[in-house]
Each structure stands twice: as C-alpha cells, then as structure tokens.
C-alpha cells in the first residue's frame, strides 16, 4: 500500500508538468489552430530563467578576509556576492536560498515578451498554412532556441537548489495514518500544489473574465466573434503569451526536481503532445486530465515489480495508451466530436 501511494505521488508531480505544458499547447491549438512544436523549448527557457537569476544573484567580487588565513599565514581572498554588500547578509542569504521561487517573477516577464514576439514575428504568418508547415517551422525554431541555450549555458545539466525549508522530505504517511514508511520530497509536493494553482488560475481566467469569455467564444467560432467587432486577433496574441508564461513558470519551478539542460524541452514536448492527443485536441480539461492520468500510469509502470513482468513498459506505456485511445476514440477523452476524427 505504501509503494502504491508513493507511485501516485510521483505521478501527480510528473503529471503536473505534463498538464501545464499540454495546457499551453491546447490553448494555442484551440485558439490559433497552430501546432506549436516550439512549446517544449518555452518550458526549457523558463527553466533557464531560474538558472540566469541564480547566476545573477551569485555575481561576486573578491576581498581580503579579515579573519581567515591560508596555510602560509597570509590573509585569504574570499568571494562575496554583490547583493550581500548591497542588502546585507540576511537579505542576501534569503534571496539566494529562494532564488527558484523568486525567478517566477522574472520568468513571467521574459516569457510573456518571448511569447508575444513569437506570435507576432513568426506564428501569425502560418495561421492558414497546413499543419505540416507549422510543425516544420516551430520545430526548427525549437532547435534554434536550444542551440542558443547550449552555446551560452553549456551542454551539462545545471542543478538548482530548492529553498532550505523544503529541501528535505516530508513524512506524508504520518499525515494520513499510513505509518512512517511514506517519505516524499517536500519540493515535489510543492510543485504539485503549484501546478494545481496555475491550472486553477488559467481556468478561472478563461471562465470568469470577459476576456476569457471572448477567447472561449473565439475557440468555438472565430469568424462570428470577429463579425461582432471584437479584435479577436489581439486577444489570441495575449493567449499565446499566456501559454508561453504557463510553460515557462512550469519549467522554472521544475529545476530543483530535474537539473535543466538544453534538450529538456524536447524530452517533455513529445510526451506533452501525446497528452494533448489523448485528452482531446482543443480540450483544456482533457489536457489536464490526461496529463495527470498519464503521469500516474508512467509512475506505476516504472515499478520494479511491473518491469520484471513487462520489461521496458515504463518507456512505452504513454504511447501504448495513446494508441489505444486513438483506435477507440480518435477525438480523445474529452475532445469535441469531429475533431481529429476525419
């Protein structure tokens, strides 16, 4: 029972990442009709926003220590972050410790600008082009972005620390009366709660605001909304920026779980497209549901007991589910009738 509960927890935090990326993909496809293969690169760029902020906070200068000496008795030269000189050791220590959560503020601004620039500079020229053209151009853009990141940050993963207060593990079993055998990392729990909060905020924005209502109407019938005198194109540009922000903050907060490298976006992109297809093209609820379901299934498939019976099942379980869903329900779990059924 403990092992099952642990796998559910593993699936929820992994599913949270899948759901956030798939949510952005679905927003873009549902509003613009664009298959954006660069969306995984946006997840990667968000992760490197966290890396960039951490490096900026760690920019240091050298000074001669007044207390420490080397083995020859000479004063030791030490590196001191500029923020420690500017704000004092206490605030500087807080900023360094909480650099990953704080990086969300930087990520929101950077990703919104990148998202709007992508839509205005490139994507808008491919609205009426075949999906094959959209895939080719956005896939090429993703490769360009990851090579730029590799040039400036290198090819090796760059670990990012979680705040000290949530760096350890939580005794989840004792909370639920399951004993002391269910120990789970705090940051993974934080990430699941964070992903749930972002998903709720996006759905609330689309459901309870006038802007969101117009966007949802545009997803159903773009031409009719345009005939009402509403500049639906401008709103769709904002939606593209919103999708980029969602992918970016998902990547930034995932860095303590998976040290970012330049190809992490491609790794998540393929799985997230499978999530979108399984959930239903254009269905926001389906993307979220499929993200968590596939995350949990992948987690269970990685158990040694399962792999001993079905070797390699953890590598193909997501694609196996996608094949079954497409054969039995081509429009996906919550897709609209007529979408992807031709």
Automatic annotation (TrEMBL):
InterPro entries: ABC_transp_permease, BCAA_transport_permease. It is found in: Cell membrane. Pfam families: BPD_transp_2 (PF02653). The keyword Transmembrane helix applies. The chain crosses the membrane at residues 15-35, 42-61, 98-123, 135-153, 189-215, 236-257, 269-297, 309-327. Keywords: Amino-acid transport, Cell membrane, Membrane, Transmembrane, Transmembrane helix, Transport. Its main location: membrane. The keyword Membrane applies. It is a multi-pass membrane protein. CDD domains: TM_PBP1_LivH_like. PANTHER family: ABC TRANSPORTER ATP-BINDING PROTEIN, BRANCHED-CHAIN AMINO ACID TRANSPORT SYSTEM PERMEASE PROTEIN LIVH. Belongs to the binding-protein-dependent transport system permease family. LivHM subfamily. This is Branched-chain amino acid ABC transporter permease.
């Amino acid at each position: 029972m403990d092992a099952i509960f642990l796998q559910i927890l593993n699936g929820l935090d992994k599913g949270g990442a899948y759901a956030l990326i798939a949510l952005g993909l679905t927003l873009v496809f549902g509003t613009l009709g664009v298959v954006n293969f660069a969306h995984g690169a946006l997840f990667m760029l968000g992760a490197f926003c966290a890396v960039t902020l951490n490096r900026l906070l760690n920019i240091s200068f050298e000074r001669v220590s007044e207390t420490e000496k080397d083995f020859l008795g000479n004063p030791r030269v030490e590196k001191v972050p500029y923020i420690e000189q500017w704000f004092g050791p206490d605030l500087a220590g807080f900023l360094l410790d909480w650099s990953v959560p704080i990086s969300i503020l930087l990520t929101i601004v950077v990703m919104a600008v990148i998202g709007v620039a992508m839509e205005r500079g490139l994507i808008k020229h491919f609205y009426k082009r075949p999906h094959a053209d959209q895939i080719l151009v956005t896939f090429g853009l993703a490769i360009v972005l990851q090579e730029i990141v590799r040039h400036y940050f290198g090819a090796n993963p760059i670990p990012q620390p979680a705040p000290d207060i949530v760096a350890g593990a939580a005794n989840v079993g004792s909370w639920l009366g399951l004993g002391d055998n269910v120990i789970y990392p705090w940051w993974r729990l934080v990430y699941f709660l964070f992903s749930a909060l972002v998903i709720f905020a996006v759905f609330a924005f689309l459901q309870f605001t006038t802007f969101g209502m117009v966007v949802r109407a545009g997803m159903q019938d773009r031409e009719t909304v345009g005939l009402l005198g509403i500049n639906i194109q401008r709103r769709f540009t904002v939606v593209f920026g919103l999708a980029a922000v969602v992918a970016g903050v998902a990547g930034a907060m995932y860095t303590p779980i998976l040290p970012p490298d330049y190809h992490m976006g491609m790794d998540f992109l393929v799985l997230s497209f499978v999530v979108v297809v399984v959930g239903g093209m254009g269905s926001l609820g389906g993307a979220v549901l499929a993200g968590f379901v596939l995350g949990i299934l992948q987690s269970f498939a990685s158990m040694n007991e399962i792999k001993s019976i079905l070797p390699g099942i953890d590598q193909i379980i997501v694609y196996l589910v996608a094949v079954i869903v497409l054969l039995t329900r081509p429009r996906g779990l919550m897709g609209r009738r007529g979408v992807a059924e031709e």
